[in-house]
Design a protein that fits this description.
The chain is α+β, with helices and mostly antiparallel strands. The protein has a single domain, classed as Beta Barrel (Lipocalin), CATH 2.40.128.110. 16% of the residues lie in helices and 52% in strands. It contains two helices and nine strands, in the order αββββαβββββ. It is globular and about 55 Å long. The protein starts with a helix and ends with a strand.
Length: 185
């Protein structure tokens, strides 16, 4: 019996030592958002507060990221127009960042496809609502990139959505917004 317990202890020790947790370089990593409407689109950035990736034998195993929703910025507008858009995105109509200052992305399952390609199944929490999403990621050496399509209505962000409001005309805003992630670790 003692030899079985010793074997399980050594096996557990080797599993834990083979895992490698790597923190994301917050200064070099970038998250960009893109929101579209019938008459055009807007884009900007969001600051990553923290991020960790866990590898096992060189393959991605887990990931956990905190995003600062108060850091939303606009890149395609300047001055008062940019300020107005950013303030609206931070308001209750959209992300309500005063009440919900963080979004969370937690990898539930990671499937290595081939080479540097992975399928990520993750929980995304926005405005206190958590939904499971799937996306592809490319991970090589000390960099990772992904493009995530998010349905904002899953997170009770209905403002300007033609799915909920009739007769919006050219004021309608697409339900899907895009998050482009470029990480350095």
């Amino acid at each position: 019996m003692k030899s079985i317990l010793t074997f399980l202890f050594v096996l557990g020790l080797s599993w834990s030592t083979a895992q490698n947790t790597t923190s994301v370089n917050l200064d070099k990593s970038k998250i960009e958002w893109i929101g579209k409407k019938l008459t055009g689109q807007h884009n900007g950035n969001i600051v990553l507060k923290s991020g960790d990736l866990v590898f096992y034998e060189g393959k991605l195993l887990k990931g956990l990221f905190k995003i600062d929703m108060n850091s939303i910025s606009c890149s395609d507008l300047k001055g008062e127009s940019a300020d107005k858009l950013v303030n609206h995105l931070k308001s209750e109509d959209f992300f309500n960042s005063n009440k919900f200052p963080e979004a969370l992305l937690n990898f539930r399952e990671v499937k290595h496809i081939e080479g540097s390609s992975y399928l990520i199944i993750a929980d995304l929490s926005i405005k206190g609502i958590t939904k499971t999403i799937e996306f592809n990621a490319d991970i090589r050496e000390n960099k990772a990139s992904a493009v995530i399509n998010v349905d904002r209505t899953d997170y009770d962000i209905r403002y300007g959505s033609k799915s909920f409001f009739d007769e919006l005309g050219d004021k309608a805003i697409d339900d899907i917004f895009v998050i482009k992630i470029d990480l350095v670790f």
